[in-house]
Amino acid sequence: MSKVAVITGASRGLGLGMAERFAANGVKLGLCARSPLTFAGAVTAQLDVTDADAVQAFADAVVAEHGRIDLWINNAGILDPIAPLRDVTSAEFRRQLDVNVLGVVHGSQAMIRHVRGREGGGVLVNISSGAARKPYSGWSAYCATKAAVDRLTEVIAVEEAASGLRAHSVAPGVIDTDMQAAIRATPDDRFPLKHKFVQMKEAEAFSSPEWVADHMLDLAFGDAPERWAILERLPAER
After folding, report:
1. In the 8-state DSSP scheme, what is residue 204?
2. How far apart are CA 20 and CA 2, in angstroms?
3. Domain residue spans of the chain
4. Is the C-alpha dihedral spanning 68, 36, 18, 96 positive or negative?
5. What H or E segment, with its residue span, contains residue 185?
6. Concatenated DSSP letters for 40-102?
7. How far apart are CA 226 and CA 218, in angstroms?
8. CA–CA gap between residue 179 and residue 184 (Å, rounded)
9. What residue ranges in the chain does DSSP mark as E strands?
10. Cβ neighbours of 38 (radius 10 Å)
11. Cα torsion angle, 205, 12, 89, 96, sign
12. Which of 86, 201, 76 has the alpha carbon at shortest distance from 146?
């Protein structure tokens, strides 16, 4: 039986790259994003992950089409604003909390409900970042929300272990996406460490979406012993 995976934020960047790699490996897909997307053979939806009802309806549509969900990846997230906390408005900070934390909550809840309503386990992957563990000047909201995702995933793993749901928070490394282009275009006074990301671009020292996707498939469906530890850190290589 083919495995079924859901990916949020799948219209571009890492999300789209994982979708393409998964499809090439015979995985059936449910894909959603704020932007319109089309993907042959996949259940797709244009939605905002901050809308809990929309996320649940999307999950129900995937199950109706493919029969089950084996892997759910909460990939949708935003970085803006890049600025010192003193210059960030409450509305800007709240938007990051809504997308980066509540969006993960909504996707996680949909997967938890699904796994608890059928036989067999499942895998939940929440995309994290090195920013969850290291402070970056200019990324106050992003660092805070990714740290929250890590701890949220720890709680889910504890709460849902008996249901057979494995929960992992994965920091996939730096991938050359539109987000990275925005980082490199940020004024130095708003993001003092910009030069490090510029140097990374010059050296093309990035993880590829395909490499990350292969590790995701191994984490979810590989033959290695099940890893119930919460925070899975991919090695810093392509």
Report:
1. T
2. 15
3. 4-173+208-233
4. negative
5. none
6. TTSEEEE--TT-HHHHHHHHHHHHHHHS--SEEEE--------B-GGG--HHHHHHHIIIIII
7. 11
8. 9
9. 4-8, 28-33, 43-46, 71-74, 122-127, 165-171, 231-233
10. 8
11. negative
12. 76
What positions carry a catalytic annotation? Answer: 142
Q: Count Cα neighbours of 38 within 13 Å in the Cβ-side half-sphere.
A: 1
Global confidence as pTM: 0.88
Q: Give the CATH fold of the 4-173+208-233 domain.
A: Rossmann fold (3.40.50)
Q: Could you tell me what percentage of the chain is helix, strand and coil, using 3-state DSSP and rounding each to the nearest 5?
A: 50, 15, 35
Tens digit of pLDDT at every position of the chain (238 positions): 699 999 999 999 999 999 999 999 999 999 999 999 999 999 999 999 999 999 999 999 999 999 999 999 999 999 998 999 999 999 999 999 999 999 999 999 999 999 999 999 999 999 999 999 999 999 999 999 999 999 999 999 999 999 999 999 999 887 777 777 777 877 888 887 777 777 777 777 677 889 899 999 999 998 754 443 334 444 443 3
Say how far residue 210 (Cα) sits from the centre of its chain: 15
CB atoms within 10 A of CB 226: 10
Rounded Cα–Cα distance for residues 25 and 32 (Å): 20
**Helix axis angle, 140-160 to 103-116, nearest 10°:** 10
- Could you tell me which residues come within 8 angstroms of residue 91 by beta carbon, excluding any fewer than 6 positions away? none
CA distance 57 to 62: 9
Distance, in Å, from the CA atom of 98 to the CA atom of 148, rounded to the nearest integer, reads 12
